């Protein structure tokens, strides 16, 4: 007889997962574990505010733009405050760089790590109740512990990440992250206030039939190779799916197989998405799950950032599909 839900175990909570995996890190003294908990805590607060966005006056934009020229939504700023406050109080991060702020913030503590974060990606979808996300990367502070933070600490290659992850605020809220030993997904159980392991050892299918691109860009594409690739997808009757929230599009492709493309356009000659705040974390996850993330000719994780808000072209998802894009770009 099928077990009733009451008999089923709660499952492995994020706390228990982190604790049980901490022993795999010989030098771990628990700081990274605590930092991941701090990020998870902030996400629970943001999740609560997103879920009631339609009921209190936190929808719409604030009439200002961030350093990238994006119109800031009220929830963008609220999320930025929540994550910055949680990380500052937690004490494990000594600095934060956020997509919502021009420069990095030195938290002036002796934390070993720095965090780069897009507090609320896809925020233009908030008012129409479409899934949005948070994207974060964790790096070790490079400058000497006694020295103040410098911008160089925030210009590390994606391959230097200690951890990378995202929170997807969708029909259910999920936290997906990697510390370089595979990718695991946790679903938020709001009645318990816990993230519970729901997607252990996530793998990206080697190939897929879903391509994600803003088709409205068709006449703004600058690379014939991308036009040829999209034509090939359509002649092969692949499925076009585009949510307009990078985290949601990436997560679907991770689970079902597929590729997300944001190529150079006449408006964004270097691509629209940010290397530090978006591409690096998702590229770390993609690669750990067996997928791939590149620009035209470089693995995202190998790019040496030159500025915190640097944009890059992004092709990310099933390995064979990204490789096919590369072939088309070389023709
Ligand atoms: P477009 C949201 O603003 C975002 O940064 C990503 O989440 C999303 O994939 C992309 O931009 C959407 O851009 O130009 O298609 O609206």
What labels describe this entry?
5-stranded mixed sheet, 2 domains, 7 helices, Fructose-1,6-Bisphosphatase, Chain A, domain 1, D-Maltodextrin-Binding Protein, domain 2, 331 residues, alpha+beta, binds 6-O-phosphono-alpha-D-fructofuranose
Give Rg in angstroms: 19 Å
Strand content: 15-25%
Return residue spans where pLDDT drops below 50 for at least 5 consecutive residues: none
Percent helix, as a range, is 25-40%
- Report how far the terminal alpha carbons are from each other: 59 Å
* Beta-strand segment tally: 17
- Assigned CATH class of the largest domain: Alpha Beta
Order of helices and strands: HHEEHEEEEEEEEEHEHEEHEEEH
CATH superfamily membership of the largest domain:
Fructose-1,6-Bisphosphatase, subunit A, domain 1
Bound molecules: 6-O-phosphono-alpha-D-fructofuranose
Average predicted confidence as pLDDT: 92
What would you say about this model in short?
This protein has 331 residues and is of the alpha+beta class.
What does this structure look like?
This protein has 331 residues and is an alpha+beta fold. The chain folds into 2 domains: 5-199, Fructose-1,6-Bisphosphatase, subunit A, domain 1 (Fructose-1,6-Bisphosphatase, Chain A, domain 1, 2-Layer Sandwich), CATH 3.30.540; 210-330, 3-Layer(aba) Sandwich (D-Maltodextrin-Binding Protein, domain 2), CATH 3.40.190. It has 7 helices and 17 strands. The protein has helices spanning 14-22, 31-51, 74-90, 224-235, 246-256, 275-288, 319-330, and strands at 61-65, 71-73, 93-98, 105-106, 113-121, 132-140, 163-169, 173-178, 183-189, 194-199, 210-212, 239-240, 259-262, 273-274, 292-294, 311-312, 314-317. The strands form 4 sheets. Strands 4-3-5-6-7-8-9-10 form an 8-stranded mixed sheet, sandwiched between helices. A 5-stranded mixed sheet has the order 12-11-13-17-15, sandwiched between helices. Strands 1-2 form a two-stranded antiparallel sheet. α2 runs antiparallel to α3. The longest helix is centred in the N-terminal third of the chain and has 21 residues, at 31-51. It is globular, with a radius of gyration of 19 Å. The mean pLDDT is 92.
